[in-house]
Amino acid sequence: MAWTISPLQPFKVRHQSVLSALQLQSLIQLYQPIIGKEALALYLTLYNLPLEEVQWSQTRIHSELFTILNMGVPQTNEARMKLEAIGLMRTYRDSSSQADINNQSFLYDLQLPLDFKQFMDNSLLSTLLFERIGDQSFNQLLRSWRIDRLDTKRYVEITTNFDQVFQPLSSQATYNAIQEEMGYEAFRHQKAETFQAQVIETFDYSVFLKHLMNEAIDHTDLTQALKEEVLAIHTIYGLNEWEMVDLVRLAINQTTGHIETFQLKEIASKRAFHQEQKDQRPQSAQKNNEEENQRKQALASEYPDLTSEEIHLIYVSEQIPCDVFVKRIKQLKNGFATDQELFYVKDLLEKSQLNQTVINILVYYLLVIQNQTNVFKGALERTASEWQQKGIDTGAEALEEIKAQQQLAKIQKEKKQTQFNQGYNKRTRKEADVPTWMNQPSASSSTDKTEENVSKQQLEDEAARLQAQLQAMFNNQKEG
Fold first, then answer.
1. Structural contact between residues 13 and 49, judged by C-beta atoms closer than 8 angstroms
2. Nearest Cα residue to 192 out of 20, 12, 32
3. Which Pfam families did the record assign (predicted)?
4. What is the largest CA-CA distance in the chain?
5. Could you tell me which CATH number the domain at 10-132 has?
6. DSSP alpha helix (H) spans, 102-240
7. pLDDT at 443
8. Buried b vs exposed e over 335-353: b needs ≥16 C-beta within 10 Å?
9. CA-CA distance, 188 to 99, in Å (whole number)?
């Protein structure tokens, strides 16, 4: 049962001996990546509290500990549980201190950290460390703790033996007396107790072996070290018996046919990483779709007169940076964005008060609606200046301005045509008899009108095509 500490609850600390330099190094390099800096701070703080006796600290209350650590109850309690779980501390309740179980004092019995070899020999701890720091840092750590071997061909040992300096014990009785005096008491020492994890009940190792032996595995590879490694990987990564068989199969050396146990950590880590990336993709896509739908619904609610295509254009313009927007539009027109075009858009973004959304719609207006081949500086800055003077600040306002300009151009064109027709009717000219064929449109005139209609239809089709491709482009960008 996990107990929660309270500020006024008393506690004492017991520890075995002073930490050596190597043990401190082990705490920092091996344990800290697993338990975190808060748990390590708690361990070192408890270890260095003033002593009342040789191994026992003074009785303190937890609120003092919170002040020293600058941590609250939840953080300190979490750090305590990590120390207990990793084997650095054992916690006891003093049942005789209080009748109320929630007020009974605590005893924190600090354990020495494992040395490097003990730690690495422990499959669970070494696998957990590998998972936390990655293969590159793990291998660097191994190299930093490695002891260089002496060249025995070059160096010949000439160390003096014990018997050459000291006299042997004169009597076996003396040694027996010493042993009797010591009895069975436990004494302070620098060796840490081997970390023992809880018995794993979620993994049936016999089932794993049954399926593994079907893979024609060399039975000499089925060692205790392999079992510990497999159980550790199961504990860290949650792989079942069949997944572990697949993992071990990948660790078989194709040349020797033997299982390379040291490869299992790296293979399990890579598998977990790729699985996590795979799981995140649909979640990320679903989240993006939900955000897109919410934003589009908000735009539709705020601007009910806009079509769904216009709503989508505004949304895309909000999401894509201006330089990327220009590049994608030019790609859809089977061209490419020039350095000058990108500079013009970037310069406009910096010196004008127009935001990204408005500038993107301005680019769309020039390249798609007006079907210009490039983003020309004059047209870009002239239109941008007009929009800024009119206080256009949103995508909807930009689209309304485009519609207004198109409507104005249409009215001016109709007015000009009407004036021309009126002037033509007022002309006085002599009517002459003409052949019937003179009133029929010429082939070139008919062709011109046909080409004009086709050209207009092509322009509308091209705009619709670009609109559809723009939507597909943005969807692909989200999936990527």
1. yes
2. 20
3. DnaB_2 (PF07261), WHD_DnaB (PF25888)
4. 154
5. 1.10.10
6. 116-121, 123-145, 172-182, 205-213, 224-237
7. 47
8. eebeeebbebbeebbeebe
9. 33
Q: What is the pLDDT of residue 459?
A: 56
pTM: 0.48
**Axis crossing angle, helix 395-426 with helix 308-319, rounded to the nearest 10:** 130
Q: In the beta sheet, which residues pair with residue 12?
A: 107
DSSP 163: G
Counted residue by residue, the chain has a size of: 480
Here the tokens at position 307 are: 């079509």
Q: Give, in order, the Cα–Cα distances in Å from 32 to each of 24, 86, 133, 415.
A: 11, 11, 11, 81
How far is Cα 62 from Cα 69, in angstroms, rounded to an integer? 11
**Three-class DSSP category at 14:** strand
In this structure, are residues 192 and 111 in contact, taking their beta carbons and an 8 Å threshold? yes
Report d(CA 94, CA 434) in Å as an integer: 125
CB 103 within 8 Å of CB 9: yes
Side-chain-facing half-sphere of 434: CA atoms under 13 Å? 8
Sort 45 into a burial class: Cβ within 10 Å, 0-12 / 13-18 / 19+: middle
Show the tokens assigned to 312. Answer: 């989508």
CB distance 119 to 192 below 8 Å: no
For helices 241-250 and 205-213, give the axis angle rounded to 10 degrees: 50
Residue 239 is given by DSSP the state -
What is residue 89's three-state secondary structure? strand
Residue pair 42/6 in contact by the 8 Å Cβ criterion: no
Phi and psi, residue 36, nearest 5°: 90, 165
Give the residue ranges of the chain where pLDDT is below 50.
187-190, 430-432, 434, 437-438, 442-452, 454, 480
pLDDT of residue 176: 63
Contact in structure between 362 and 383 (CB atoms under 8 Å) = yes
Contact (CB, 8 A) for 129 and 138: yes
> Which residue's structure tokens are 């033996």?
161
Structural domain boundaries of the chain?
A: 10-132, 197-280, 302-413
